[in-house]
Amino acid sequence: MSESLAIQMLSIQKIYPDGTVALKGVNFDLRRGEIHGLLGENGAGKSTLTKILSGLLRPTEGKIFIRGKLKNFRNPSDALRSGIGMVHQHFALVPTFSALENILLGQEGSSNLSRLQMSKARARVEEMMRAGGFSVPLDARTESLAVGVQQRVEIIKMLYRSVDVLILDEPTAVLTPVEVHDFFKTLRTLRDAGKSIILITHKLKEILDVTDRVTVLRQGQNAGQIATPEATPEILARMMIGHDVLPSIEKKPTQIGSAIMQVSHLRVKDNLGLHSIEDLSFAVHAGEILGIAGVEGNGQTELVEAITGLRPVEHGEISINEKNIAGQNPRQLYQQGLAHVPEDRRRLGMILEFSLSENSILGVHREKRFHGWLGKILWGKVGSHTWDLIKKFSIVASDVKAPAKSLSGGNQQKLVCAREFDKQPSLVVAAQPTRGLDISATQYIRDQLVHLRDEGKAVLLVSADLEEIFQLSDRIAVMYEGKFMGVAKPEELDRERIGLMMGGVSALAAPVGEAAR
Amino acid sequence: MQECTVNFVGFLSLLWNSAPDLLRLALIAMVPITLTSVGEVFSEKSGIVNIGLEGILLISAFTSLWAAEVTSSPWIGLLAGLGTGALIGWIHGLIAIPLKGDQVISGIGINLFALGFVAFGIMAVWKSAGYHQAPPAARVPALQTPLGDLSPLIPATILIAILTWFLLNKTVLGLRVKAVGENPEATDVAGISVERTRFFAVIYGASLAGLGGAYLSIDWLSTITKELSAGRGFIALANVVFSGLNPLLALLGGFLFGVFDTLALWIDTVSELKPCLPFAFHNFVKMLPYIATLAVVAVAIGHARFPKQSGQPYRRE
């Protein structure tokens, strides 16, 4: 193995205990003193690969060479000893500790019983910060620091452990644009000081800005490697998305009917008590799919929860078929004609330990057709109802008494959709309906959503997947910090404009065109 | 029937006159609660809650008396109590750490096991139902002090509380113990074994409870009964809440609970007070430690800040 490489990973395979194949034989190499971008969509295997490299996960198969030597990491400290440190998306910091204590943790001294040598450590950390050209307050409680500062604490922590290889998992997700600029400067300083850096991201711009080489992953496989100067956004996008683009969905021309749901001046608080939705008004009509795009965490979750009765409405109105439904509970909403495919199907969509039969009547279990004398549930009838759903939605399942967790993710989601769509709703709210699903299940669910629209239902689709938004929506709204940056027809938008709007830049020439009714 | 001659001022002067006596009694009563709660503070800092303290007190009281009697050495008795605590702590750790079981259930298990085991053990070893007196050779010898005869475990308890505070706040080990309680993942990533650190903490904590149990049977009360621990393990849990997981405050709390614990004894010993108090008033006073426990928990629990991962097993991924 070449010794000029800091790291070489050969045919890495990872199958999780639940059977998910995350990596199907990935190769990766990192030179000394480079910033190496690791690019890929959600679920491409970037995180899994780097978790294996940092010792958090063990590969099912494959070899890892560090500076030419074969290594087998059993835990993160093994990786640290080999000079590999990872800064996770969720920081590995103890919130009640000071920055200095966090930096020190695990590197405190020779034995457990030795006294903490805080002043010595402080001198070393301050020296490192001077050399690296960045600083953090060392004595403040970590939880009181801004995320950008916490991230720097993490990086200093790794440098304090004298790592040569720094892995950064989506580091810019928590930073403001100005912070990103400074952060990249820090990365370049570190590289020039001889460190190798792996930068995980799905943002093309960052790859082009700061990296020297890029490896692209797609669905757990290598999709290409390229030196950054030779790369263009188009080349990278093609590698990232690949050729198995979903076949386009046939959509009849819209016959938009009357407004089924009307939201006016809606105000909703998030879990921290801040207003995550502020004065939002829009309508969804019969026979249309309104797609809400946007970076996650801009109020989409709170909006869906408010509409589906899971979160109190602070102010404003939500009406379905001209009846104000704000404050009603999910059961009442179901009677008003609402169906909900929730964002987190494993938590809100189903009870994993329950059988398919039980899951197939969750929420509709009060219906008379399932009940016998004294309200006894007629499991025979429920079973045949479940079989009907299984057939109608081509769910792969062997037994209606099997627990829902025995199904694959795609089939679980199909079961949730089957139950919800079977409610004969007039409004369907679908949040991230195809997240994490394979292509055929994705395709199937998208077809079903279009089918509902063709039947004249109103569909509200919330998705972080732009492909999905463009493919399905009759109108697209882009959400940013609890507001719509604009509403437009798909043909009036391109990826660049929508990207700008997702970043908070209003990019519509005629901001609210015909589509904004 | 005597007339009551003590007014409020008189009561205060009585209290003042017997202050040295009260102090001595409180110091004596302080030991088991303080040892147990200081140990539990250490354990809870690491994220392992052990509500089986009551059971550990009781079982260790039994094993230490047995060992002390068989060897005629109270020191071996103390070691046996310490070791019994360590063993039970290890079992609790085994359930809570690698097996990722529910810590509350495990703790309840320890308490229930203790009830049966000690009742049976007394019967099996001494052939007496529920009661055995420690022979003089098995008792920890007292120190001569200005306050009177005192157990060497009293200064030891104070030292242990200070030592535990020092361990938690001034040593590498303490930083690690606190880190595994707050964010085990971060600690794991930092290259520290979460399992080993938690095991150490839970065994350390349970050992101190074991020492407290030994003190009950071969020192203070010089006896073993199947109710010997009398809820002190639970009072210790309340004291842990009161202390806000600070060993020095746990020492102070232990002393205060010790005062309440001895008030009933004291009232019984003051003959002037007898006619002033309603019938069986000392039984009412005996409730004081428990009422104080409830009050402290009710007031303090809102302010106490426990580790984020308290009671939670750590799973990688």
How would the blueprint of this fold be written?
The complex is a heterodimer of chains A (517) and B (317).
Chain A: E1 5-15, E2 21-31, E3 35-39, H1 46-53, E4 61-66, E5 69-71, H2 76-81, E6 84-87, H3 99-104, H4 118-132, H5 147-160, E7 165-169, H6 177-192, E8 196-201, H7 204-210, E9 213-218, E10 221-227, H8 233-241, E11 259-269, E12 275-285, E13 288-293, H9 300-307, E14 315-320, E15 323-324, H10 330-335, E16 338-341, H11 345-349, H12 356-360, H13 379-392, H14 409-421, E17 427-431, H15 439-454, E18 458-462, H16 466-472, E19 475-480, E20 483-488, H17 495-502
Parallel strand pairs in A: 3-8, 3-9, 6-7, 7-8, 13-18, 13-19, 16-17, 17-18
Antiparallel strand pairs in A: 1-2, 1-4, 4-5, 9-10, 11-12, 11-14, 14-15, 19-20
Helix pairs in contact in A: 14-15
Chain B: H1 8-17, H2 19-45, H3 53-71, H4 74-96, H5 103-126, E1 131-133, E2 143-145, E3 148-150, H6 153-170, H7 172-182, H8 184-189, H9 194-220, E4 223-225, H10 232-243, H11 247-269, H12 281-286, H13 288-300
Antiparallel strand pairs in B: 1-4, 2-3
Helix pairs in contact in B: 1-2, 2-6, 2-7, 2-9, 2-10, 2-11, 3-4, 3-5, 3-9, 3-10, 4-5, 4-9, 6-7, 6-11, 7-9, 10-11, 10-13, 11-13
Question: What is the mean pLDDT of chain B?
Answer: 90
The second-level CATH architecture of chain B is Orthogonal Bundle
Can you tell me the number of structural domains of chain B? 1
Tell me what the CATH architecture of the largest domain in chain A is.
Answer: 3-Layer(aba) Sandwich
> What is the CATH top level name of the largest domain in chain A?
Alpha Beta
Shape of chain B: globular
CATH topology of the largest domain in chain A: Rossmann fold
Report on the architecture of this protein.
The complex is a heterodimer of chains A (517) and B (317). Chain A is built from 17 helices and 20 strands. The longest helix of chain A has 16 residues, at 177-192. In chain A, the strands form four sheets. Chain A has a six-stranded mixed sheet with strand order 6-7-8-3-9-10, sandwiched between helices. In chain A, strands 16-17-18-13-19-20 form a six-stranded mixed sheet, with helices on both faces. Chain A is 32% helix and 24% strand. In chain A, α14 (409-421) packs parallel to α15. In chain A, β17, α15 (439-454) and β18 (458-462) form a beta-alpha-beta unit. Chain A has 517 residues and is an alpha/beta fold. Chain A has two domains: 5-241, Rossmann fold, CATH 3.40.50; 259-516, Rossmann fold, CATH 3.40.50.300. With 317 residues, chain B is mainly alpha-helical. Chain B has a single domain, classed as ABC transporter involved in vitamin B12 uptake, BtuC (Orthogonal Bundle). Chain B contains 13 helices and four strands. In chain B, strands 1-4 form a two-stranded antiparallel sheet. A two-stranded antiparallel ribbon of chain B has the order 2-3. The A-B interface holds A 54, 56-57, 75-77, 80-81, 86, 88, 91-97, 101-102, 104-109, 111-116, 157 and B 170-176, 178-179, 182-183, 185-192, 308, 316-317.
